[in-house]
Inverse folding.
């Protein structure tokens, strides 16, 4: 396995030059040696401008092409420090904090970097959780007049799936924004989160009635109890912690359009809460970053309507 720095001093020592950063990213992207992104050929010529030219199809690429680092004008060593800082903050990182600690010239740069890093927090093709899983939904957003509970307007509905270990401990979680509480929205989200054959524990909401048909063992908690009561303590706990995190770290300033990536960040942090080495989180996030497509600031802000109201 690729080594990783275990302290800030090691980080500074290992990645003091751009060349050291590029060599580290090269090993992460091509652990078995270069492979052309277009044709898969294993050989390439290198040039002084850090480009690789495929011997077979002459396609040119770089170690950062097609990743979150593509097109950056900032040193990779600064990116590495940003990722280290993000992974070392127990309660998450804000754009203002990142701007301050790295001395970035603008808030927009720090904001863009954080969103690119958040997109790398979920590994493409990640495995699904299994075993005993508690599932519920929760609305994200402040108090607004009108209908409460399922069907509440002006808020964002999030599916929460919590793996329960030994019938008493939190395992991994999965969070996903969904369009509504109907089976049409719930079932695909559950299939994406949980392995078939898992025990899915829910309340008596009829949107979950088809889970047996999808290959799950469906357990309903107390069928004769009012839907909406806190029958699912693990999901309720995650919902509470998530909302507190959004309000505490980000002051509730999270747009509906970007909520997915904040959910990914919270999932990344929660599932690695017992990790003994921050350097491992740094390493895993860099691994994911090399598999995450590039995105521009103009794409990040497209269609954004504003933050979730307090």
């Amino acid at each position: 396995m690729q080594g990783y720095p275990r302290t800030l001093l090691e980080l500074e020592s290992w990645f003091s030059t751009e060349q050291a950063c590029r060599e580290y990213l090269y090993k992460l992207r091509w652990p078995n040696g270069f492979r052309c992104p277009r044709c898969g050929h294993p050989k390439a010529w290198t040039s002084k401008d850090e480009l690789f030219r495929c011997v077979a199809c002459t396609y040119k690429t770089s170690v950062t092409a097609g990743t979150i680092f593509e097109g950056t004008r900032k040193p990779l060593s600064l990116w590495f420090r940003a990722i280290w800082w993000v992974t070392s903050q127990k309660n998450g990182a804000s754009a203002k904090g990142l701007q301050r600690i790295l001395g970035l010239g603008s808030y927009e740069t720090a904001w863009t970097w954080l969103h690119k890093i958040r997109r790398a927090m979920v590994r493409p093709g990640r495995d699904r959780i299994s075993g005993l899983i508690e599932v519920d939904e929760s609305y994200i957003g402040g108090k607004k007049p009108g209908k409460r509970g399922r069907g509440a307007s002006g808020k964002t509905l999030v599916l929460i799936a919590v793996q329960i270990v030994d019938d008493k401990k939190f395992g991994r979680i999965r969070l996903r924004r969904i369009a509504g509480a109907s089976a049409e929205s719930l079932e695909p989200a559950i299939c994406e989160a949980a392995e078939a054959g898992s025990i899915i524990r829910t309340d008596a909401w009829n949107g979950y009635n088809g889970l047996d048909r999808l290959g799950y063992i469906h357990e309903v908690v107390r069928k004769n109890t009012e839907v909406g009561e806190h029958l699912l303590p693990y999901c309720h706990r995650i919902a509470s912690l998530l909302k507190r995190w959004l309000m505490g770290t980000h002051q509730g300033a999270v747009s509906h359009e970007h909520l997915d990536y904040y959910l990914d960040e919270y999932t990344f942090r929660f599932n690695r809460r017992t990790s003994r080495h921050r350097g491992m989180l740094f390493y895993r996030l860099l691994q994911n970053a090399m598999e995450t497509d590039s995105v521009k600031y103009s794409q990040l802000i497209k269609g954004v309507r504003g933050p979730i109201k307090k």
The radius of gyration is 22 Å. The chain has a mean pLDDT of 88.
